[in-house]
Specification:
Length: 40
């Protein structure tokens, strides 16, 4: 799911969230480079 789709879902559901955004959602699943180096 991309950021635009997540934003559309939030808008459709009329959710007004203070601590969540599509960008936060995507960032939550990103692995920092130092961890990538450790497991490489």
């Amino acid at each position: 799911v991309n950021e635009a789709d997540l934003a559309a879902r939030l808008k459709q559901r009329r959710l007004d969230l203070r601590y969540y955004s599509p960008a936060v959602h995507l960032g939550a699943f990103a692995m920092p480079p130092y961890l990538q180096d450790l497991i490489a």
